[in-house]
Amino acid sequence: QLQASGGGLVQAGGSLRLSCAASRRTSSNNAMGWFRQAPGKEREFVAAISWRGSNTQIADSVKGRFTIFRDNAKNTVYLQMNSLKPEDAAVYYCAVARGSVGNSDYKDYNYWGQGTQVTVSS
What we know:
Number of strands: 11
Strand content: over 45%
Number of helices: 1
Oligomer: single chain
């Protein structure tokens, strides 16, 4: 129901754009978010966007470098990642929230994608 893509290997300072395509049934009227998990670390909130795209939340660790946006006509949410750092390396997961306004609490998300690996070389 959620298909994330766009991960890969990039040098520090580079950019990647992640995409997450959701079925209409999964994402209709729901906020969506991105989380990440590095080896040995807990899952970390990255960004969230409301159903209409008018409200976004960005984690402090990526603020000013990452942008979240969505195209509801395509049922797709994107994460534009610029100025990547080695500490951004992780598996990135997209998720659909239970409500129309997302937040940073992973417990408020009930559909999860399979994850896409982002590797940043220094």
